[in-house]
Amino acid sequence: MTACRCDEGKVLVNETIDERVARVRFDDRGLVPAIIQQWDTRDVLMMGWMDAEALRRTLSSGRVTFWSRSRQEYWRKGDTSGHTQHVRGARLDCDGDTVLVEVEQVGAACHTGDRTCFDADDLDPVVESL
């Protein structure tokens, strides 16, 4: 499968999934943080870890796959809970060391049953007036 990289509307190169994955700067454990965002509301749902294979599976299957650091295995969001994440887009940050995956979330994103993993613990920062 190939995708076009464009610059101001000009096609620069057709890339395979492996070529896209090769652009990612994985850490010394071979992992990259993946921020999962609801595609239409832009709500940040969760963060998980991906290695090259998890990212490859995510880009090629239409469903989000993570690498579990504790279980040392792949897991596809929703396979046991039914709370699935359907890929709508994916981007690499400016440094190449964080992936943003835009999804259509079905059900809760958090293992606690909350809509997002960021609903539970407000750190109550000082908010500066503009």
Describe this structure in words.
12% of the residues lie in helices and 38% in strands. The mean pLDDT is 91. The longest helix has 10 residues. It has 130 residues and is mostly beta strands. It is built from 2 helices and 8 strands; from the N terminus they run E-E-H-E-E-H-E-E-E-E. It has a domain of 79 residues: Ubiquitin-like (UB roll) (Roll). The strands form 3 sheets. Strands 4-3-8-7 form a 4-stranded mixed beta sheet, covered by helices on one side. A two-stranded antiparallel sheet has the order 1-2. It has a two-stranded antiparallel ribbon with strand order 5-6. It starts with a strand and ends in a 25-residue tail after the last strand.
Descriptors for this entry?
130 residues; mainly beta; four-stranded mixed beta sheet; two-stranded antiparallel ribbon; 2 helices; globular
How are the strands ordered across the major sheet?
4-3-8-7
The separation of the N and C termini measures: 47 Å
SS elements, strand count: 8
| Rg measurement, Å | 16 Å
* Mean pLDDT level: 91
> How many separate helices?
2
CATH class categorisation of the domain at 27-105: Alpha Beta
User: Which sequence of SSEs, written as H and E, runs from N to C?
Assistant: EEHEEHEEEE
- Share of β-strand residues: 35-45%
- What do we call the CATH homologous superfamily of the domain at 27-105? Phosphoribosyl-AMP cyclohydrolase
User: What is the CATH topology descriptor of the domain at 27-105?
Assistant: Ubiquitin-like (UB roll)
| CATH architectural name of the domain at 27-105 | Roll
List low-pLDDT spans: none
Structural class: mainly beta
Q: Name the overall outline.
A: globular
Q: Largest beta sheet, briefly? A: 4 strands, mixed
Helix content: 10-25%
